[in-house]
Design brief:
The protein is about 40% helix and about 15% strand. The protein is α/β, with parallel strands linked by helices and about 325 residues long. The strands form three sheets. Strands 2-1-3-10-4-11 form a six-stranded mixed β-sheet, sandwiched between helices. It has a three-stranded antiparallel β-sheet with strand order 8-5-9. Helix 7 runs parallel beside helix 8. The termini are far apart.
Amino acid sequence: MRRMVLFSSLVLATIFCATVVAAQPANEFYKGKTIRVIVGTSPGDYDTWVRLVVRYLPQYIPGQPNFVVENMPGAGSLVAANHLFNRAPRDGTVLGSVSRNIPNYAFAKKPNANFDPLKFNWIGSPEMTNRGCFARVDAGIRSPADLYERELLFGTDGAGTSLSEMPVLLKNLLGMRFRTVDGYKGSTDVVLAMQRNEVQGICQTITAFAQSAQPMLDNGTFRLLFTTERDHVPGLNAPTIFEFTKDEEQRAILDFHASALETGRPWLAPPDVPADRIALLRRGFDAAMKDPGLIEDVNKRGLKVTPRTGEQIEAVLRKAAAFPPELLARLAALSKR
């Protein structure tokens, strides 16, 4: 009997403590706490941005919590996204930065995307960018039209990842002769393989490629073949892949794929985090984006702070979620090798 009473008391105490923590005002919650930021990639562009932001973000969160960055690469950020949705604490002490393609993986019902993007809490993004496909000049591709006749070898970090998705999609959708080689650890590894002439190209964001390969662009070793959004990118002497589409279905599918770029380099929190903590994190993130120190730090690296709010990211995803199911099914089929 005494054991039952003791057990019941322990259960009630646990529930009471959890209730107190949940009820704690957001502006008091983070004092003395540590926020863990899970990056869904190996060290590289996403990781660089996260480590820059966490230098300045604490001062804009009441309680000035410590921040710890943890890399959790795998399957194009699917490992991290699944962890954040299904296993991470839902109290605001764990955040994430995952590939911008992650929401569309789920909308397209790709294997192992065990999460609902609309149930995540989106915090913000420090950068907006464009995507392009790059190749060695000596690969013999003078125009994207040459890809209908000549094969081009592209390096990737595995099937279904952001590096492999575009060449596979363009091969199946437009009939371009892309061939992918897996096994690289990330975009930086692929660029090194391009320098060694193991592979001839890569599809990734313009800013990320410039960070790792600007000297090779400047000396004419590499070139930008095309960009992947509908509109031409000012300042880039390159066509858009939309110039090579043949019908509205192809253009709609490429529009949906390009919509991921509108989320930038998104930060997110697991579902069910108290709304007042999410509001506090969002406003703190927005304030950090205006910090002169962050802006100077970013500029020194040849980057630029071009932020999006959590609300803007959420609006983009709600629009993507309304994409016609039949075209999503078509996209999913075209994204398979």
